[in-house]
Each structure stands twice: as structure tokens, then as C-alpha cells.
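We both want to read C-alpha cells more fluently, so let's practise on a single case. Would you supply a protein for us yourself, any chain you care to pick? Would you write everything just below, so we can both look at the same thing?
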Amino acid sequence: MKSITPEMEYLSTRQSAKVLQVSLGTVQKMVELGELIAWKTRGGHRRILASSLDQQLQRRKRAMRQKTTQNCIAVGIFRRTENGQELLDSIQDWQLKVDMEVSVDTLEGLMKAVSLAPDLIFLDALIPPVEQVHLIHYLSKNKDTQRIPILVDEGFIKLHPGVVALADENNGGRTSLSDSIKEELENGLIEQNPLIIGYPATTSELSDGWASNRHELLEPLFLEALARKCI
């Protein structure tokens, strides 16, 4: 397989076919479907963006990994490192085998979710509501993540859109919600989304760490998420 080197910004259709190990016709079809980003030179020759080829290769690797492993692949986005570690420690005792990538930064977590296309995504209850709304919005719009179940705190699901909007106003304009996202909230972005699954609601004890029995309750919810992903 021909490799993509850092200095390559774009490749010809023939070069792209060699990289992907497919026919020229398949490459052209992928361009037409928007799976590869391309443009034509003044001479009418098609040039394909190398980074879009690399994304295709990464998608293939993910698909192959998911076919060859029986483990659940998850991305967990947390507010505190210790909360993520506590969940990682707990899932070692589950019957369900979970490989979880953890992030304590929402933007990094979003990028990991898009890159890995995991079986499910877990959002920590301590992430502010406005940030959770943004995450769910972008995850539901991205073609690589829009069919992935998302586990969120039950208390967050029950928040009325008006409450989230109020939290947005009190946020001082940081990561504020756009009018389009507010409209999505009103139209059921969260409470009517079949791929969003609530886990046991937040309690005052959460700030001091997750209780072990709460982690035990998560295992059947992970299994439910996997079942919904297959629908």
C-alpha cells in the first residue's frame, strides 16, 4: 500500500486509488458521495485532499478493529480526572469488556469521538449543561458519530430547554447556545433522541466521587446502548 507522506497535500485519482487499494471508478464514486474531498485543476485533472484520504484509512482501521474485537469501545468525557479513573477501575470488574478512551477536556473528547467512532459515548454529569448540549449537538450532526448512543445523567435529560437557556445566559456568553441549537432543544434534541440513554441521576455525593454501586448500575446501561446501536 502506498503511504501518505507529510509533504503530500493532495494526490491524483490514480495515486488515491493506490493508497486505498481500490479502482479508479471507486475513488470517483467516493468523491461524488462526499467521502473524499477533491477539486479539479484548470486542465481538468482531479486532485484529492490527502487529509480526506487519511480519514478514510482511519475509518477502515476502526471498522476492522471493531470486527476483530469483542470488546465494547467507548469514549468517556469527564470534568475531573479522578471521576474518569474511578469508572475505568470499576469496569475492570464487569462481565462486559470495555476499552474506554478518557478525556477531561470537552473539545478533546469530541475530537476523540469523531476519530474513534466508538460503540458508545459517556458524558460525565459534572460537565456544565451548556457544554453537554453543545457536545450532543455536534455529535448528532457529525456523520461519524450521529448513530452512536450517548449516556448522560438523568438529571440533565430532565432539564427543560428553558432551564438550559437560563444557564446559558448566566454563563456570561462563554460557549453560549446559538438560536439554532435552542430551537433544536425545543424540538427534542435531548429528551426525544432514542440514542440518548440516562444513567442514575446526580446526587450531592457525586462531587466527592462516584459511589461503587452507581458504577455497577452502569453496566446494563452500556449493554442497552450497544443494543440501540445495532437497531
